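Predict the 3D structure for this chain.
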Amino acid sequence: MSTKLCIGIICGGRSLEHEISLKSAMCIAQFIDKFRFEAMILWIDKKGCWHLKDINFRNLSYHKNDKISIFLQNCPHPFKFHTKNINFLLKFDVIFPVVHGTLGEDGALQGLLCMMNLPFVGSNVLSSSVGMDKDVSKCLLRDAGLSVVPFRTVLAQDQDNIDFDYFVSIFGLPLFVKPSNQGSSIGVSKVTKCEDFNLALNKAFSFSNKILIEPAIIGRELECAVLGNDNPKISVCGEVILSDNNFYTYHDKYVEHKAQIMIPALINDAISDDIRHVALRAFQVLNCSGMARVDFFLGLDNKIFINEVNTLPGFTCDSMYPKLWEVSGLNFQELITKLVELALDLHDKNNYFYHVDGAVFNYFRHERI
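Done. Predicted structure below.
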């Protein structure tokens, strides 16, 4: 009998970040410690059908990304997920979800896994949901005394009353208009004149019934990775450098690869320490666990603003999160192993009570209740 832990890597889904999720799953499958773990792909296609696939990537190159979907589409026995086949998930010791975006990192998938009492990598239901909602997370961070990018939240039913001049009067130009619950810069527009404002509103509202309007922060884009549960560790800081001084769009990130990644960022130790401290506080305020990537703006006056907290960051071979840890001394394989260990540890601690021979014991003190 194998003593290896069986890891289920869930990817895909109906999210707009479907393709990025497949790349994340492929990298995890390639770098996972095969002496300690057995792994299977659980691919959710764009119609919501689930597919199981044993991993054999020997004939695939990460850079030939067109082959990923072809490989997965050959999965046998697609099925709709419902109660009569829910028990197939119980064959796994740990789930590693990399379904980025809607229904993957917003608490929905985490809720399913919690109901099944399965250990899984990453934050719990509430922290995942809060992290996905930029409005709610920014309010919590701001109320905790952390500096966030100023914002106003607008609902779809109020769209006809949104006044361009009002937002220019409080934020100036340019403005950013973004959906409250999308990742990878999906639905985000940079507005420099009145003629573009309504187009930006329509675009953002097509992705969410709640949007944010924010000022542009002139400065630098910095990111920091957090890893852990009760005693999280903080990576070095990294910087995203854009050649055209625009903003980091989905196309820039995953199609053109325009941005230059600088790790560690060329900032002084005092600023680095401040950013790492704020990243830790943000992680704790949102009660995150496992992992998160905290994105910042550093203003021209060296003021630090939190842009957002990503509870399920990209895990491709080019993604900032694993690259930050690599420079911080933890390679891709070690990072995956650590995240699995954290998932198991958190699962044990969340089962506050356990039963032995009819008696109930407290997990933390191992005392009979």
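The chain has three domains: 5-121, 138-146+217-330, 150-215.
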